[in-house]
Design a protein that fits this description.
There is one protein chain. This protein is an all-alpha fold. The protein has helices spanning about 15-30, 35, 45-60, 60-65, 70-75. α1 (about 15-30) packs across α3 (about 45-60). The longest helix is centred in the first third of the chain and has 16 residues, at about 15-30. The relative contact order is 0.14.
């Protein structure tokens, strides 16, 4: 019988680390979507957005319980965005 579980991690496509990083970044974006729409840095499919998305996944343990503003402060400190980008 064919496995129809779409949530299965398939290592030939993506590592477990990449999966959890992407899952966290997606959840973070979904949780802040209304505010992100007003941010200059959040331009769909831009190189900066991809850089932020990757940073979110890599730093998920650091930002898990932080507000959007606190996360942005860390992004600024890490050189991902500038104050002008907000």
């Amino acid at each position: 019988m064919e496995n129809t579980n779409t949530n299965e991690i398939r290592p030939e496509f993506i590592s477990e680390e990449q999966f959890f990083a992407t899952e966290f970044a997606s959840d973070w974006v979904s949780g802040h979507c209304l505010t992100l729409e007003k941010r200059k840095y959040w331009v769909w499919f831009s190189p900066l957005q991809h850089k932020i998305y990757r940073w979110l996944g890599e730093n998920r343990d650091r930002i898990r319980d932080l507000s959007l503003e606190e996360s942005e402060e860390l992004m600024i400190a890490d050189g991902i965005i500038t104050r002008d980008d907000i």
